[in-house]
Structures are given as C-alpha cells and as structure tokens.
Amino acid sequence: MSETITAMPGTTDVSAASVHQMSMQQALNRALDEVLADNPKTVIFGEDCGRLGGVFRITDGLQAKHGEDRVFDTPLAESGILGMSVGLAMAGFHPIPEVQFDGFAYPAINQIVCQIARMNYRSRGTLPMPITLRVPSFGGIRAPEHHGESLEALFAHVPGLKVVSPSNPHDAYHLLKYAATRPDPVIFMEPKSRYWQKGPVNLSSAATEVSANDDGTAPSGSLTGARVAREGRHVTLVAWGAMVSRCLQVAELAAEDGIDIEVLDLRWLKPIDAEALARSVGKTRRAVVVHEAPLTSGLGAEVAQLITQSCFATLKAPVERVTGFDVPYPSGDLEDEYIPNIDRILFGIQRVLEYRRG
Amino acid sequence: MAEISFPLPDLGEGLIEATVLDWLVEPGQQVERNQPIVELETTKSALELPSPQAGKVVRIHGAPGDTINVGEPLIVFEVPDDTAGIVGTVPKDEAPKRRVRLSAVLDED
Amino acid sequence: MTTEPVLAAVDDDAAPLTHHQLRELYTLMAAVRHLDTSAVAWQRQGIIPAYAPELGQEAAQVGSGYAVDRTRDFVFPTYREMGVARAMGLDMVGYMSTHKATWHGGMYNPLESRFAPIQAVVAGSVLHAVGWAHGQTLAGQPTGEMGVAMTYFGDGASSQGDVHEAMNFAAVMKAPVVFFIQNNGWAISVPTERQVAGGSVAARAAGYGIPSLQVDGNDVVAVFEATRSAFAHCRAGNGPVVIEAMTYRRGPHSTADDPGRYRTLNEERLDAGEDPLERFKQRLLAEAIADEAFFAEAQRLAEEEEETIRRGIEDLGPRPGAEMFGLVFQEPTPALQSQATAWREESEHV
C-alpha cells in the first residue's frame, strides 16, 4: 500500500487558516521576514540582497520593511561576505548571508572552512557561529558556468558545518526558520530549479513537529530529520533538493510496472538521519541514492555506507548510486544529459531489483 | 503571465495632460526598456516617451489625437509571473517521459 | 586624470590615428552596437536563453581591443566583452555560442584568438593575466618586444580580493599586464559609490606603485590612445599599468534583469552621458572624416554581419554529450571512461 505524502510533509495540522499555496521563493521570503521580525539580532546581506531583493527575489521587500541596517547590499566579494559574518557573529548578531549562486561559494571557501566552521571549537565554545548561509544551489535552469553546482559533499565534509536542503515550499519555510534560530552554522542549500513551483505551506508552528509517518515513529518527519515523501515496499529512493520531485515522478512510473517505491527526502545532509535510512531500507531491502553532484566522493557514498552499516544482513542488493558525472557541470545544452533523468533512475532501480546474491 | 499597467507620467512643470501624436509600438510587440513607445504633444513641446519596462505590449490607450490625463492608463505590458531571477530559465514542469520499463520477479521473502 | 607615478615610457607609435583607422573604429562600434542589441532580441525570440548586453560600452571595448597586437599579446575577458572580441577579429559565432548555452567558455579557439575562454567568475581571470605576463618575462622576451596581457574587469569585480592580489603580484614582479577596468556604474543593482570606496579603482594603483590612467570610456579615441601607451609601457619592461575607463551600462545586467527595480529612466538619462556612437559620429562628421553615406554603409555592413552570425547561431546544434567526458582531462581516467560508457548505454539520444 503506497501513499503519496507530498501535500503536507510532516504535518497533521491542516486547518485551512494556516495553509497557504505559495512558491518556494515566496515561502523563503516569508520565513526571512518572520525571522527578522522575531529576532532583532538577525541581519541579511550579500550581493544585490537589498534594493533588488536578490537575483531570485528571495529577499524581495525585506529592506524596505526592516531597514537598511538589517538587510543590505555588500560589495561584490564572497570571501568578504563570509568573513564579515564571522565578526558579526562574534559581536552577537545572527548573520544570514547569501552567496548569490552555488559556484560563488568557492571564492569564500577559506572563510567558510577555516573560520566559520571552527571558531566555536577554537574558542572552546565561547564564540559560537550562529550563521545561516543561504546558497541557491544545484542545476536545471540553463544558467552560465558556476551557476549550477552541487556543493553538498564539500560542505558536509567540513567539521563544524551543518547542511540542509529543502525540496518543497513547506519544508523551505520551516527549515529556514529553524536553521536561522540555531546556534551553529548551517549551510542552507536552496534548489533553484524549484523556486517557482507552488505547493501548500502550513504556516502553523505545530506543523513542524509532527511525524509524517502514520505510526507516529518520530523523529522521521520532524524538522531535524528525513521525511518519507512517499511510502513504498520494494525499493527506497534516497534524494534531496530538486531530485526529490524527480524521484516522486519515477515512483509513479514504477508503479505502472508493479514496483512500489518509497522516496526518502533526506533534507539534512549533515547530520544525515541514519535512523530514517535504516527504517526505510530495513523495510524495502533495496536502495538507490540519487543526486546531481558528481559520483566520486559524492554524498551518495556516505548514504550507501550508512545503509550498509544498518541493513547489511538484509539488503537484497548493493546500494546503487544514480548521480551526475565526474565532469564539470556542463552548459545548458548538455544539462539534461548530466542531471539524473528518469530513465537513468529507472535503470538504477532495475539493477537493485534484478541483483541476485551468489 | 501578469500584466503591468503604466499611467501617463508627470511630464514635468505641472502639465496635467498630453495628446497622443503617434504610437511607435503596437499590441503584441516586444519592447525593451528605454525604447521610444509613443510620441506625445504637451502644451510646451512634442516628445517621445521611453518605455519604463521590457515586456510584451498588451494594450495601448488613446488613438492619435486623443488627450490623456496624467495618471490615466497609457500602456499595459505582459510580464512572466515567474522571472528566472538574473540568469537562467524557469524550468517547465513537463509530463515525465520514459524509455525504460522495469521488470522484476519480486520474491517477498 | 592621471595618478602618480606616471607612465615611464612614451609610445614610439604615438602617431595620431589615420582617417582610415578612425573610420574602421566607427565601423567596429556600429557592428558591435547592432550585434549587441540584436542579441537581446534573439533572447526575446527564443534563439538564445540569455545574454549580458554591453550597450554603452562600445567605445571602451572597441578602443581597447583595437590596441591589442594579436601576434604577441593575450586578452583575458569576462562575460561582457563582446566588443573586445569583435575588435580583435574573433569568430563571433564561436563567441556568441556561450550565450546559446552551447559551451561555457565559448567555441572559439583561445590560443589562435589570443582571447582566453569567456570567464563567468567575477575577477576570476585577473591573476591569470599576471601569470601569463610573468611568463613572458620568464621566457626572456626582449625588452621592447614583450607580449602584454590585458585583463578586463569591472567596478564590481574590483571588490574581489583576487584583484588586489593580482595588482600586488604584478607590481612586485613587474609583469607586463594592463588592468583594464570598465567602470560602468553598476554591478547588477549596486552603484559604484556603494561598491568602490574612494570612488575610483584607478586611484588604488598608487598604493601598489602602479601607474594608472582614468579615461573617458565613452571616447573611443581616448580609450585607444590610453591603451596603446599602456601597452608600450609594459612592452618596454616597465611593469603593469591600470586603466579605468569611465563608462555606463545603459542596458540591464542580463536579459532577465529589471533595472526599474533599482534605477529610474531619468537617472539613466542623466548618468549615461552622451551615446558613445553618436558622439564619435558627430566628431567624424565635424572633422569631415566621414559622411552620411559612410555611416549608412557601416550600418548596412553591421546588419549583414548580424544576419550571418544569427544564422550561424541558429544552425548551431547541441554538442555531443560524449564531449562532457572527453574534455575533462588530457589523460582520461578509467572511472570516467566507464561513466561515459554507462551514459551512452542509458541516455545517449541517437
């Protein structure tokens, strides 16, 4: 028996008053608006975040509403933006910097890795880094070079960073509000190809704490863990960001062939919800990890190891990975050849289905 | 698609109206920001008004010879609801396409 | 404005431009203007997905590109240097293909064109120019004949740390490199006064002991002469030069940008100054260097050229997916080859 839980992830409170139809772009904008209102120490800054409202309009209207001290444009220097975040955090602020595109995080890697990630440790806990770094991420919009990259494995590999990526407007709203109230640095990877798709958002804070599972097995649906986006019996597809919706499409197609797919939306890429992986694959006994990032040393390897660790005895097949290739993210004309497409994911599913031990 | 309407702007020095001499664009036409869209005559001079917006013209108000008051609708543009930000293209949600079929004998042990 | 220290060498080729050269400069600017505005239209017509216009920067780009010696110099562009590319005689279908999303760096040959691959990272190639220039020194190029690197960047890019590192390196190593800044007033939505402390990138050169020139970037002859003298200074072994061409980005940052969100038409009119093409045309007319028939012919040539380039772009199909794998390394790895094989089996569309 499969059930599609896409409408209201992690939610039982569906009172009409708190449910709004909005795009991820609007959901993120609303979350930032509320964070600014709730905490006078939050500040938003980056390239074109102020008057323009960001190149994706995520900060649209926030400067006009909250003032130029709270929401401001910086000169064009990512290392500067992130380095300044460290000092602001030391001064008691909660910076929410934006790096305009994934690939622009590379010039700031020094400040992210050597400073933000380890100031808490260096200072023996006296200088926490409550920094929420928003990064429009992943590909799919036929953009120029360095505007379509998937850096999650890079960030996840750095001790001292937490990494999260929402796949839908509801999660985007709640996860951003959650991240922006944490005392540790969180890299918030926004799937830019999903900015414009609309979905229901339950704005109630109660909507954040409820499991998506009918049996109430918390915390799989809670904000700090993964989310079962679709229940199924035969194979678990593990994904995050923009790949979740593609995996849900694949699950519908697989159902036509009599294969019942479970889709696990990982949400947190560090820490990874290992219990949710164990629960899901413990049931389906087959898993395929899907990500846009290149294969080698991608996060799929980490996920596969966690599954192997918990489910080795009952796995029917080695965990498969369907990913981008070990090539620089290509230009728009070749984008569809690079990003895992429906057929490649189906091939991956077929491989775990037909694998036989011995 | 959304529509953005622009009224006749204050052309300066307290003028309250202008007369349309000639439209330089027509409905359906794509115009660029700053492109001249209409020739107007005020009590002081004739002038070309530049487009405040890039977009497709949906409607124009006033035939040659008509007088339009400042603040009244002059031109309406069609702009996409979801602009892709500064670069890139908003992906279309398309019906999923497949070549591959799954086949499996599922032993439910 | 010239900030100290002044250029150490005077160009030995400082002769005024001939009438023929002046007319050629105009012809180039007209071609660039028409191709640039056409490319915006191509985007509206769905021929290309996006474009970064350089409207208003024709004088800065053509004037500087015209000074490059393609037998020995090398240019490091950003993603908004179509006018430089055209002035240097690049294969323009190969150049514009980057905007069709065919290949990120463009399809022209950088080594033959003396024009590095199109650079999407702001300030990404400024240090490369210093390295290439120092390479000329290391290769023992004789003084007076040295190849010179010219790196393009903008007021926005000048905020990047790499630019400061590049200037310092170049000065320390006396590298023959021209830092050519087009200060076009805007980095997407952020104006120069909110970007460049002190208001001038050229003024920063003094701190590195680099001679600098701030020129009227809308005066093609002034830009050409400044660039020519900077090249002569570098070629003679005197080290780097900074040129800041003051111009104006008359169009949007890109075809998806909406400048109405951050500046008014009136501000644009006041700040943009005189159109560089119109201004040059009036000069050529006033000095009887060209007549109306010449300008009509220049426009006709520009339109003809645009049609040829547009046809080339329209005919340009996607690159074979196999190139994704084949161009990563000079020596491919077995893992990558097996990924290519899997890709061919699972998704190659033949």
Structure description:
The complex is a heterotrimer of chains A (358), B (109) and C (350). Chain A has 358 residues and is of the alpha/beta class. Chain A is 33% helix and 19% strand. Chain A is globular, with a radius of gyration of 20 Å. Chain A starts with 18 loop residues before the first strand and ends with a helix. Chain B has one domain: OB fold (Dihydrolipoamide Acetyltransferase, E2P). Chain B is mainly β and 109 residues long. In chain B, the strands form 2 sheets. Chain B has a 4-stranded antiparallel beta sheet, with no helix packed on it. A 4-stranded antiparallel beta sheet of chain B has the order 5-4-2-7, with no helix packed on it. Chain B is 0% helix and 39% strand. Chain C is built from 13 helices and 8 strands. In chain C, strand 3 (149-154), helix 7 (161-173) and strand 4 (177-183) form a beta-alpha-beta unit. The chains are: A alpha/beta (358), B mainly beta (109), C alpha/beta (350). Chain A binds chain C through residues 47-48, 50-53, 55, 73, 75-77, 79-80, 103-104, 106-107, 142-147, 295-296, 325-328, 330-335, 337-338, 341, 343-344, 347, and chain C through 49-50, 79, 98, 100-105, 120-122, 156-157, 159-162, 187-190, 194-196, 261-262, 318-319, 321, 323-325, 328, 333, 335-336, 339-340, 343, 346-347. Chain B: InterPro entries: 2-oxoA_DH_lipoyl-BS (IPR003016), 2-oxoacid_DH_E2_comp (IPR050743), Biotin_lipoyl (IPR000089), Single_hybrid_motif (IPR011053). Chain B: This is Biotin/lipoyl-containing protein. Chain B: Pfam families: Biotin_lipoyl. Chain B: Keywords: Acyltransferase, Lipoyl, Transferase.
| Percent of residues in helices of chain A | 25-40%
CATH architecture of the largest domain in chain A: 3-Layer(aba) Sandwich
Poorly predicted regions of chain C are 1-5
Order of helices and strands of chain A: EHEHEHEHHEHEHEEEEHEEHEHEHH
DSSP E strands of chain A, number: 14
Give me the CATH superfamily of the largest domain in chain A. Thiamin diphosphate (ThDP)-binding fold, Pyr/PP domains
How are strands sequenced across the largest beta sheet of chain C? 1-7-8-4-3-2
Regarding quaternary structure, what we see is heterotrimer
Number of domains of chain A: 2
| Whole-number mean pLDDT of chain A | 91
Helical segment tally of chain A? Answer: 12
